[in-house]
Amino acid sequence: MAKLSKKLSKTDIRKRLSVPTRFLSSLPSFNGAHAVDFQAVDEGGKVWTFKCSIRRLRHPKPVLSKGWLAFVASKGLQAGDKIKFYKETNDVAKAHAYKVRAKREIKIFGCVLGYAPITAPVTPTKFLQRNYDV
């Protein structure tokens, strides 16, 4: 079951991922700290380490920072794309496994038709232009 599903904003892809407070209950315990690291596996099997931090005072306002921008760059995420984090329990090891999935917004003539999974790292555009210009 998805614990977090979000359509990405410009701030989400340029600075940090803002997450709802209810997502905190599915993360490892903060143990009184203001941040916790956790690992999530993408659809290709790559393990990503993310840091979720909260404010020390008042409303927690959780955000993912460490590791997030590298994930965004690797997947070529853009505003409008969707992200999902899942938590699954391994009954044998009694350990929690997090998964992260990204989906690209599919538009035709400005209308959103749906979302397609992003399964492979994006090749940098400059590399393609430099090597395939005629």
From TrEMBL:
Signal peptide: none annotated. Keywords: DNA-binding, Nucleus, Transcription, Transcription regulation. It is found in: Nucleus. CDD domains: B3_DNA. Its main location: nucleus. Pfam families: B3. GO terms for cellular component: nucleus. GO terms for molecular function: DNA binding; DNA-binding transcription factor activity. Residues 2-101 form the TF-B3 domain. This is TF-B3 domain-containing protein. It comes from Salix brachista.
